[in-house]
Design a protein that fits this description.
The protein is an all-alpha fold. It folds into 2 domains: 54 residues, no CATH class; 147 residues, no CATH class. It contains 9 helices and no strands.
Length: 202
Amino acid sequence: MKNLKGKIILFSILGLLIACFALFSFVSVMQVISVLAIPLIIVIIPLYGYFKGVKVYEVFTDGAKEGFQVALRIIPFLVAIFLAISAFRSSGAMDLLSWILSPITSRIGMPGEVIPMALMRPLSGSGALGIMSELIKTHGADSYIGRLVSIMMGSTETTFYILAVYFGSINVKQTRHALPAALTADLAGIIASVVICQIIFG
């Protein structure tokens, strides 16, 4: 019975979204959703917990206390990853690697200017954001490079940072298959970004 109710609610929401997209433009519907999404989440989750009999405030404070302890545990891992990123950039290794890869990547539609972004993205979100902002400022948001780095930013993840945070919070030092799998996903995201950008924007 609960599964049936859940399916009814899910299909109702999907039907409502389809009706909205049919009646209004995609952009206007997305603007409304983007404005309402976070306030609705903030209101709905505590209300749902309250009606389920959960002591919302007590659970929230317990979670905040645990989050503080997790933050203390992961500080050494974060310091290590930020130091490695800084050394990678400051030593000139990233520029050298970009120069080596540029002739290869330019043949598949990935300009050499984008390589630092592709190399930095698995390491640091803020570093990748800085490179993306500089490229957009230099080449323009509507340029091929600007669109490519924007798609790449949304298609990949800060792999090393995420692994440092997640594994560090539970004191796991052997990541085993997590790192190769995550880097493979990043590579797939970078390749897909180039392919999608070429198909849509030429």
